[in-house]
């Protein structure tokens, strides 16, 4: 314990020394256009075909992401789709068919499409009466079938269907009684486990085969993670992500018959488990990933470890992630990235050791012109250790800098080390960027996560403000040039911070940020209904927390705001009501606050369309520049 504490202290001290000492020996980066940071990637999301002879990727066509295919043998390419909407995700269903999802309105209702490679044909295979489709299991080992969820019977819940990809027929497998939030198949594609909720407590359901009724085998409070990942390859036991009887999420093996944990596969003392790396060919867990300040691997299989080591030796100081492999696990598609570089993709043949570059996501960006993202820690006012990241603009001394505070969304997410175009845009303009994983952020264990419950408008906001004070004490920040920028919960935090601490910031930017807590609590999307009681306990209960809801609502405490505010909102946002944002903007203006309001008719809770992204960030950049140059007040 002493060694670990000493190591953490030494890391923090050395990191701070680096931050303070770097800057003046570097040339400033050339000014990079906003378009170059936010235009669609040239190519992205590479996937290998099951046979390993082809790979696919997304590429923009008329500014919309579409699927292309390339033959590895002769490098011939062809365009597979011509969608007028961005393709959100896709996967190889088998060697002849690729499936993809599209959200046409931004309202988070997904349609399923099929590409028949032999017939060169694309068709919409979503049921006409279903609001949305989601993939439960692609059944990679079963030809021409997959398991999907459909909410055609009730938009609040998803029933389970088996989809036959030969005739596109959907067959009901399991009807959701209204409280099932997750379904799990075994390795033969049979639905044999599920999670149910009463809004607060979670139950693990299990059955020996699909002809039996489900039976409840475990019950846990939502504060505990006890989530099945997959069946063991003999279909007898379950791999489960669990923090039961521990603070950090571990990977365990659980016996559903005897209802007990029988093995701890992996746990880390500092952070939660992220994911397990599974081999269907070897029928084993090859390793796991977990994130400290950046992604880490732990392997249990020497052959897979050797592959990772070989690739990392080829790309030192980069994150190396295998994103796709063929069925034989001899050919791989590899994504290589860092804090200063968008992803590059490579093809790797394990047998020949061939490493072939396929593409850069953004070849127009030179990583030598980007700024380094460094991990930092500071103490909150009540003594909690807050982890975060500080990006200093290249070529500037680490003192008296204008600062953009950039809290993450969620709030039950976390920042990680890696390339972020928002961070790099601001750093390129000469701003330091401060990110923090405030209490309630995931990845740091159960206790840290729970400290954020019902603290959206209080201690979480204090953690953000305490980071600003820390930066001022280090003399890195110019206290007269600090602004706050965020998306979703980060946008909410921007508005809350300038309300609670009106003298600390010079502006706030909110993209799809929550402005009215009452609306958020009372109008959750239909598919959140099963979690409503949990939301009441984690966020606020309208029946008992009316005073807190008012205190945590930006619209209720906006009278203290004196600095300029930029707000952007999507018309089709299912989480933040545009009418609430309209009322908030009107209230700010009536109070004499300068408000720039961007309303996007064709977006939802995220900005998907390239032209809207570029327009918004140009507006944000201009707004910030005008504030710091005192052209707005």
Task: Describe the protein.
The chain has 633 residues and is α+β, with helices and mostly antiparallel strands. The chain has a domain at 2-30 and 371-514 and 564-628: Alpha/Beta hydrolase fold, catalytic domain (Rossmann fold). Helix content is 20%, strand content 35%. The protein is built from twelve helices and 35 strands. Strands 28-29-31-30-32-33-34-35 form an eight-stranded mixed sheet, sandwiched between helices. It has a four-stranded antiparallel sheet with strand order 1-2-3-4, with no helix packed on it. Strand 5 and strand 6 form a beta hairpin. The N and C termini lie far apart (51 Å). Residues 1-18 and 20-25 have low confidence and may be disordered.
What labels describe this entry?
eight-stranded mixed β-sheet, alpha+beta, 12 helices, Rossmann fold, four-stranded antiparallel β-sheet, globular, single chain, 633 residues, 20% helix
């Amino acid at each position: 314990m002493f060694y670990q504490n000493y190591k953490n202290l030494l890391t923090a001290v050395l990191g701070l020394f680096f931050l303070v000492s770097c800057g003046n020996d570097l040339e400033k980066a050339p000014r990079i256009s906003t378009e170059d940071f936010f235009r669609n990637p040239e190519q992205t999301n590479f996937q290998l075909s099951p046979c390993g002879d082809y790979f696919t990727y997304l590429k923009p066509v008329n500014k919309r992401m579409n699927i292309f295919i390339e033959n590895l043998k002769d490098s011939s390419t062809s365009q597979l789709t011509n969608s007028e909407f961005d393709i959100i995700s896709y996967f190889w269903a088998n060697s002849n068919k690729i499936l993809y999802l599209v959200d046409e309105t931004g309202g988070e209702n997904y349609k399923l499409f099929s590409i028949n490679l032999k017939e060169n044909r694309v068709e919409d295979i979503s049921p006409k009466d279903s609001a949305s489709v989601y993939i439960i299991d692609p059944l990679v080992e079963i030809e021409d079938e997959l398991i999907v969820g459909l909410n055609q019977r009730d938009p609040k819940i998803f029933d389970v269907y088996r989809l036959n990809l030969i005739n596109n027929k959907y067959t009901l497998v399991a009807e959701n009684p209204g409280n099932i939030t997750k379904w799990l198949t075994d390795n033969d594609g049979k639905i044999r486990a599920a999670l149910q909720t009463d809004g607060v407590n979670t139950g693990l359901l299990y059955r020996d085969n699909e002809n039996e009724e489900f039976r409840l085998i475990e019950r846990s409070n939502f504060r505990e993670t006890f989530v099945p990942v997959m069946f063991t390859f003999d279909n007898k036991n379950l791999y489960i992500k669990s923090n039961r009887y521990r603070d950090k999420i571990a990977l365990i093996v659980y016996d559903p018959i005897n209802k007990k944990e029988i093995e701890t596969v992996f746990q880390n003392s500092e952070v939660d488990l992220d994911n397990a790396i599974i081999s269907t060919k070897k029928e084993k867990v090859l390793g796991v990933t977990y994130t400290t300040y950046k992604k880490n691997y732990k392997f249990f299989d020497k052959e897979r470890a050797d592959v990772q080591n070989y690739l990392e030796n080829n790309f030192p100081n980069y994150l190396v992630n295998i994103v796709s492999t063929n069925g034989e696990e001899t050919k791989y598609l590899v994504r290589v990235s860092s804090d200063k570089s968008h992803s590059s993709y490579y093809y790797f043949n394990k047998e020949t050791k061939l490493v072939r570059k396929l593409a850069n996501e953004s070849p127009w960006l030179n990583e030598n012109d980007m700024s380094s993202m460094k991990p930092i820690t500071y103490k909150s006012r009540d003594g909690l250790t807050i982890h975060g990241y500080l990006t200093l603009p290249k070529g500037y001394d680490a003192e008296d800098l204008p600062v953009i505070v950039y809290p993450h969304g969620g709030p039950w997410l976390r920042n990680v080390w890696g390339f972020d175009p928002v961070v790099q845009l601001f750093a390129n303009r000469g701003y330091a960027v401060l990110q923090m994983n405030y209490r309630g952020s995931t990845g740091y264990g159960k206790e840290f996560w729970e400290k954020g419950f019902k603290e959206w408008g209080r201690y979480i906001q204090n953690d953000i403000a305490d980071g600003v004070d820390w930066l001022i004490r280090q003399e890195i920040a110019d206290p007269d040039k600090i602004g706050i920028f965020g998306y979703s919960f980060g946008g909410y935090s921007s508005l809350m911070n300038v309300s609670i601490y009106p003298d600390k910031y010079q502006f706030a930017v909110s993209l799809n940020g929550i402005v009215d807590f009452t609306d958020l609590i009372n109008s959750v999307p239909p598919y959140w209904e099963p979690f409503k009681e949990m939301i009441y306990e984690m966020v606020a209960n309208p029946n008992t927390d009316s005073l807190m809801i008012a205190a945590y609502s930006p619209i209720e405490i906006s009278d203290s705001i004196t600095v300029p505010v930029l707000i952007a909102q999507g018309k089709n946002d299912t989480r933040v009501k545009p009418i609430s944002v309209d009322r908030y903007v009107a209230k700010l203006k009536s109070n004499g606050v300068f408000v720039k309001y961007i309303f996007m008719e064709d977006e939802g809770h995220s900005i998907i369309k390239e032209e809207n992204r570029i327009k918004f960030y140009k507006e944000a950049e201009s707004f910030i520049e005008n504030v710091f140059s005192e052209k707005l007040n």
